[in-house]
C-alpha cells in the first residue's frame, strides 16, 4: 500500500479555480443531501504570540473519502523565529472503504481556494443575472480569491473596494487591475463603496457591524465570508430583516456565523432562514426569485469543502503522474 | 522545512518497550501535572462490515509537541477485499512552537505499544513487590503486549490464562513460552485463573462482567484494559467497593471506563477514586500501602500516551538517521 505525497507547489499547479468551484458545489450538494458526516472540529489554542491549530474531519459518502485537515494560523513570530509561515496546513485523505491513508498533501492553499470558490457558487445561485459591479469590504488575500473565483462565473465590470489600511487598498487595486484588467475604484468611505454594489463581499476580521442596512440597495447579493467564529461580525443585523438568508450549514451559521447576530437580537427567527446553498443547488429550494430581493450567503466554511477539493487535487495528481509515493505500511 | 516520514517497519525498530514505558510515565505525569491538552476525540463510524476511524489530538506542554493519531479498526473485509489490515494508523507530529509538521509516521504499532506499557507503569506503582503470578483474562495481541511490558518491570514466574477460544489460548501459551520462557497454565475456568493472580490483566472486548468479586484474593493488582468505551465491561462492579481505584484519566474513566459501572450502580462515589496514576508517579498520592489491598488500574487510553511515545520514536529516528525527509512546504 502506497500513500501519495503532494507538496504545496504541486498542489498549487494541480487544480484550477474552476475545478475548485465544481468541487465546492459537490460539497454543498452532498452536505445538504445528507451524504456528509462532519463532526465538531478540534481546536488547540497556544499562548501568545502563538496562534491556533484546528483539526477538521469530513466524511463524504458520495466520494467515499474521509479527510482530515490540520491548519494553523496566527503564529506571528514564525517567519522571524522559525523561518516558516505564520499559518500552515496539512491534509490526510483516507479511502473510506478501507480507511487506508491514500494521500498526505500540504494544505496551505486549500482553505483559501475553497473559501474563494464558495462565494462564486453563491453568485451563480443568488446574484442577479445582470450584476456587474462588485464591492469588496476587506482587501486581503481572501478578497483576491473571491474575485478570482467570481470572475469565472460572471462578467465583472468594476470593483469598488474599501479597507481600513490605505496601503492594503492600493496593493489590492494594483494586483486586481494587473491580474484581471478589471478597474478597481477605491472608495473614501464604506458607505460609498456599498452603495455601488450589485454584489457585496465582506472578508474582514471584523468584530462589529461594518455595513449598515440603509446602504444596501435592493437586488444586492451579499457574500459574507469573514464571520466564521463566535465574536466576529461584519453586517448590521438589520440587513437580515427583509433579506433572503442562505447558509452554507444552518447548524454552523446559527452557532457562529453572521446569521447568529440577527437571531440573537430576535430580528429574525430560525424560520426566516431560507435555505442551505446545497438545497438550492439540489433544486429543493428556489434561489433568487426577483431582481429586488437582497440575498445573503453566510459562509462559515465546512470540512467537506476541504474533502471534495482535496480529492480533486489527488485525482488530478494520479492522472498527471505528479507527486511522490511512500509506503508507510 | 522538511518533514520526516517513518514507515511501520522503521517505527518497529526505532523504539524498545522499555522506552515506551518511560514515555508513558512521562505522559501520565504531564497529564496529572496539568501540562496536557487533550480534547474530545473525533470518531467516524462506517456502515458494516466496515469499522471505525478515530482522530485523537494531544498537546503536551512539557515537550511542546502536538500529536494527531488517526486510527482505524474493525474493517473485517480489508484483508480480502482491499489487501490491507483491518485496522491501520497514522500519526502527525507538530512542533508546538510553530505548528510546523515535523513528522508523519505509521501508527499501526503505536496504540498496542503504549497500551501495553500502561499496565507495566501501573504494576511498578501498585502491584505487591512480591508479586510473581499473572493471570490473563483475554489472550489476544494486547495480552501479549502487557506481558512484554510487565516482564521488564518484574520477574514473572508463571502466567495463568483464560480466553473464550481454545485455539487463541493455545497460541498464546506457545507464543509466550517461546518468547519469554515463562510457563503458561491454561485454566479451565475464569475463576480458577483469577484465584491464582497476584496481578490480573483483563484485555477482552467484554460487554458484561467477566470476573466476580469473590474470586479476587487480597493483595491483587488489577490492570483493566479492555473497557475504553461505553457499553464495555470486564469486572464485577463489586470489586470496586473495597479496592484502591486508580484511573489513567478520571474524567475519561468515569465517563467510559470500567470505573463507570460501580459509579452508575452507586457502589462507589466519585470520592472513592483514589488517584490518577500520574498523581502517584508525581508523589502527590500514595500508591499501594499494604500487601492486602486490592488495587485497580482502569486504563481508557489517552492521546498524550501517543504523543510522548511518538515523540520518542521521532527523536530516535533523528539520532539514528532513520527515515525519509519530504518537503511539503
TrEMBL record, chains A, B:
GO terms for biological process, alphabetical: carboxylic acid metabolic process
Residues forming coiled coils: none
Gene Ontology molecular-function annotations: oxidoreductase activity
GO cellular component, as recorded: cytoplasm
SUPFAM superfamilies the record matches: NAD(P)-binding Rossmann-fold domains
Listed InterPro entries: NAD(P)-bd_dom_sf (IPR036291), ODC_Mu_crystall (IPR003462), ODC_N (IPR023401)
Family: Belongs to the ornithine cyclodeaminase/mu-crystallin family.
PANTHER family referenced in this protein's UniProt entry, alphabetically: KETIMINE REDUCTASE MU-CRYSTALLIN
Name under which the protein is recorded: Ornithine cyclodeaminase family protein
Amino acid at each position: 500500500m502506497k500513500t501519495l505525497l503532494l507538496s504545496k507547489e504541486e498542489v498549487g499547479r494541480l487544480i484550477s479555480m474552476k475545478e475548485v468551484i465544481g468541487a465546492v458545489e459537490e460539497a454543498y450538494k452532498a452536505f445538504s443531501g445528507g451524504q456528509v458526516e462532519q463532526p465538531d472540529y478540534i481546536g488547540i489554542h497556544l499562548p501568545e504570540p502563538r496562534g491556533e491549530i484546528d483539526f477538521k474531519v469530513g466524511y463524504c459518502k458520495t466520494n467515499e473519502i474521509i479527510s482530515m485537515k490540520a491548519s494553523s494560523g496566527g503564529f506571528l513570530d514564525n517567519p522571524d523565529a522559525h523561518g516558516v509561515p505564520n499559518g500552515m496546513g496539512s491534509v490526510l485523505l483516507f479511502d473510506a472503504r478501507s480507511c487506508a491513508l491514500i494521500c498526505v498533501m500540504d494544505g496551505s492553499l486549500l482553505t483559501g481556494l475553497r473559501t474563494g470558490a464558495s462565494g462564486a457558487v453563491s453568485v451563480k445561485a443568488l446574484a442577479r443575472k445582470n450584476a456587474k459591479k462588485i464591492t469588496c469590504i476587506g482587501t486581503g488575500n481572501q478578497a483576491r480569491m473571491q474575485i478570482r473565483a467570481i470572475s469565472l462565473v460572471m462578467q465583472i465590470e468594476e470593483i469598488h473596494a474599501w479597507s481600513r489600511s490605505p496601503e492594503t487598498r492600493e496593493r489590492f487595486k494594483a494586483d486586481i487591475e494587473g491580474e484581471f484588467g478589471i478597474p478597481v475604484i477605491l472608495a473614501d468611505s464604506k458607505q460609498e463603496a456599498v452603495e455601488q454594489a450589485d454584489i457585496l463581499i465582506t472578508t474582514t476580521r471584523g468584530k462589529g457591524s461594518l455595513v449598515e442596512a440603509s446602504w444596501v440597495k435592493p437586488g444586492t447579493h451579499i457574500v459574507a465570508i469573514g464571520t466564521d467564529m463566535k465574536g466576529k461580525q461584519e453586517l448590521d443585523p438589520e440587513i437580515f430583516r427583509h433579506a433572503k438568508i442562505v447558509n452554507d450549514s444552518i447548524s454552523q451559521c446559527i452557532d457562529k456565523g453572521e446569521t447568529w447576530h440577527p437571531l440573537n437580537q430576535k430580528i429574525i427567527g430560525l424560520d426566516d432562514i431560507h435555505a442551505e446553498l446545497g438545497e438550492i443547488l439540489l433544486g429543493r429550494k428556489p434561489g433568487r426569485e426577483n431582481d429586488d430581493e437582497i440575498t445573503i450567503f453566510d459562509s462559515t466554511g465546512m470540512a467537506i469543502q476541504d474533502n471534495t477539493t482535496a480529492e480533486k487535487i489527488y485525482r488530478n495528481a494520479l492522472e498527471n503522474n505528479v507527486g511522490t509515493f511512500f509506503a508507510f505500511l
